[in-house]
Amino acid sequence: MLGSQSPPPEMMGKPIHEEVAQVWEQTLQKGLDTEEIKDLLQKYPPIANCKLVQAPKLNAEVKRAITQQHSERDERLAHVQAQLGAAMGAVGTALTFCLQEEGGTTSQLIELLGDAGKLLASVHFAESQSRRILASAGINKTFKSTLTGTPVDGWLFGDNLSERMKTTRALEKTSEELKIPKAKINTGKTQYNLNSKSLPRQYSQSRGRHNQSRSKRQPKTGREDQTRRNPYYRPRTSRTEPPRRKH
């Protein structure tokens, strides 16, 4: 009863046609050739009445501000988005055929193709958000809300980015002017540079006077000091006294 429980079985969908499964698995493992991707992109161009399936272009203002590495990474992600847009074009074309036909199986195909299209659109949106995060990593934080606060359109950070940045800069300047300036507090203490090799003038002068007073208090050494401590000490003189006569 309290023993370990086996994990629940993984939910799997119904099997698809074997040939379709083999083609998809091979593509998932090895990808598609560059020429084949190019042909598919030409076969399924962007939808005329749904232009947002195209990969949004990176705004020129942002492209000049980011590094070359970030720019190249954005180009790779944009290429992936272009393939998603082509896939949505293929699904949309098939879905349009189903909507134009009449039959018992049409409604089921419409549902399946509609779900596939919504999932592709969701991945397309997620790629746009990833591109935004990577591109805005080195951007001034003041403008981040301006960059990400607009929905994606034909441009990654929305249209009229320069005008929106000017508005943000003007609002930032106005808000700074409205703020009450902080009063400077004078502590009255003199700040000394601890890394300086020389001492402040006032400190060096007081230290010099202190050393002079100490030198005055120091005891004298040498003969002058010996005359004070030894009562029998007699200094030598340069004059020689004549010998005393014996009586």
Automatic annotation (TrEMBL):
Basic and acidic residues bias locations: 238-247
Start-end of Basic residues biased regions: 207-220
Domain of life from the UniProt record: Eukaryota
Biased composition (Polar residues): 187-206
Stretches for region Disordered: 183-247
Listed name of the protein: ORF1p
Species for this entry: Tribolium castaneum
